[in-house]
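Minutes, project huddle
Topic: does the predicted pose make sense with LLP bound?
PN asked that the exact inputs be recorded in the minutes so nobody has to dig through chat later. Recorded below.
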Amino acid sequence: MKLFGNLKVRENELYLGKFSMTELAEKFDTPLYIIDEDYFVERCEKYKEKFKSDKFESHIIYASKALLNLYIAKLVGKQDLHMDAVSGGELYTIIKAGFNPKKIYFHGNNKLIQELNFALDNEIGTIVIDNKKEYENLDKLIKEKGKKQRVLLRINPGIDAHTHEYIATSKNDSKFGLSIFDDGTISFIEEISKNQNFDFAGLHAHIGSQVFAEDSFFKEADRVIEYAKKLEERLGIKIEELNLGGGFGIYYTEEDSPFKLGKFLESYAENIKTSLEKNKLDVKIISIEPGRSLIANAGHTLYKACSVKETYSGKNYIFIDGGMTDNIRPALYGAKYEAAITNKMNDKDEVVYTLAGKCCESGDVIIKDIKLPKVDDEDLILVSSTGAYGYSMASNYNQIEKPAMIAVSDEAKLIVRRETYEDLIRNDIGDVLE
Ligand code: LLP
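Predicted holo structure (tokens), as shared on screen:
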């Protein structure tokens, strides 16, 4: 298992900073989401330090869908990043954390009226319009409230980013945004830019997630910049901001070949600068929206091996105390992870196991066929790099409580408490049958 951030091995045992996994499990119980706070902060700093240029101001927008709770939102605020949201619930969480609403970008292909209302009432800095109907809804609400709203338009630049079909967003049949190949998009932009209720600031695009091809990002930037130039020329408008989205791929297992982040960000910024110069376009702000790339390798899940079962066919299962309810990614996308038995870090890998969860579902598998040292009941297993889209996509299937989450730095702090049985029936109305 690759040791990211502050994960270390001492005397055959896995530590995060000064805390052993055994200690953390004893104090907080398992399954447990563990955030390596200092490593998350280090990644934020790297983005700020490396993605910059003398040609534009850069906004690093944390894509909160990767992992969001009050503590994470506060941490992002402290790092002075911007943040995106795609629902009223995400907006609410971010605002409740005291994050500056002016630094929020509100995305989504189908923002509900109540969500738009909520965004306007809370003075969200930028709303990213997805389609005509949304624009009309927003226009009506803005008029009623007598406000003016800064907006970007989500466009689809038609770049094939070669990622999993479920997380590719820029093919021509994608549900997101409006195609740059459609003439109607230009007339629509003209309409928005002439509407006094709107401050039309520019464009947004996002080509997909867990993308490794640097080239796809460069191509996307070129296409968006060329399109922005075309808009300025045809419509006589000024584009203030281009938001190029996120999707920067990370390491989960040896099958992944992520780029070197610092180098990539420098050359990305350089490429954008060159493209702006080539197109003779001056844009004040260039934004990017990493989610996974900031948090995935800074988050891990600690499980207990409750029992080992060998099937009649000879397959060895480790039954862990969590599973698809705390991490749906393997079941949903065939996502792969690495893991280690945290009290046997230097022992020889000798048995091939499948890490299975506790749901009534054969597909409830976190890792298929991983070679590990021989497991004993009560051993602890850390599945690494689960920081993105684990907790945020967790469910209560089989009425299983969501795990607790801790942030580890100089201290280990509980930041999300473990759900209880009581939490599971909190919204049920018990007297309907009486
Ligand atoms: N910006 C927009 C508009 C997005 O839709 C997304 C992700 C991001 C930024 C951040 O992408 P990232 O840097 O995290 O790759 N549940 C899937 C990933 C879905 C991504 C959705 N949009 C997974 O678990 O792999």
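Observations noted during the meeting:
- The mean pLDDT is 96.
- The longest helix spans residues 214-235.
No decisions taken; revisit at the next huddle.
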